[in-house]
Amino acid sequence: MQKVVEGILANCEELGRGKKNLLILHGWGGSLNEWRAVAEKLAERNRVTLVDLPGFGVSQKPSGDWGIYEYADWVEEFMKKTGIKEPTVLGHSFGGRVAIILGARRKAAKLVLVDAAGIEVKDFRARAFATLAPMFRRLPQKIKNWFGSPDYRTAGNMREIFVKVIGQDLRRHLGEIGCPTLVVWGERDMLLPIWQARVIKEGIKGAVLRIVWGATHWPHLEKPGELGQILEEEGI
Asked: Nearest 5°: phi and psi at 104?
């Protein structure tokens, strides 16, 4: 189905009729489709809502160059529009960034952060990228691509949004999260190494960390059964 939220036509789906609300937010470059298998299992216990975030899947692109806070604002409005109250918010990667903001704003009853982005890595390329940020727009595209990640190189007309989003380190918000939080990480995640999972766990009071053994950055695609088992064990 489709909903118009803040002037953006968004694609979304609802599964299950459980009493608990569960909102799933996909990662950068993804869509709700990649979470459907896990969502169908979770729908046995929850009312599950999946949404293509603005600019992804078949949802319209934002009219401006949004950062993560604009995405969080939009998701709040989406929740109001669809009647989602006191949800568990599950966010993967980029969607995990949005989930962190929602948790810090007290808009979630529970968080599930799956290989969540938001803890920025200060390696050589990242430091150089930050140093060059003011002049980055004027650099030749080949040089931009050298500094950029695969997500940057494939971002297309979402590139300016991507650059803005990855410049927003969210670790200062971790201590503002007061709801129960489950951190789930792929053991072999090379995009967001597992030390970042530990930073998030330590930053959120009472957070629980579970590992999906043998999975990389996409445990919902590589190990959906194992991920589903962990979620069930943790009461999701």
From this structure: -65, -30
Q: Which amino acid is at 127?
A: R
Closest to 126 (Cα-Cα) out of 143, 98, 142, 149:
149
How distant is the alpha carbon of residue 64 from its chain centre?
Answer: 20
Nearest-angstrom CA–CA distance, 173 and 119:
11
Closest CA to 146 of 163, 129, 131, 168: 129
Residue 65, beta-bridge partner list: none
Signed CA dihedral, 229, 151, 193, 90: sign only: negative
Which domains, ranges and CATH numbers included, belong to the chain?
2-120+169-233 (3.40.50.1820), 121-166 (no CATH)
Identity of residue 183: V
Tens digit of each residue's pLDDT (9 = 90 or more) over 171-219:
999 999 999 999 999 999 999 999 999 999 999 999 999 999 999 999 9
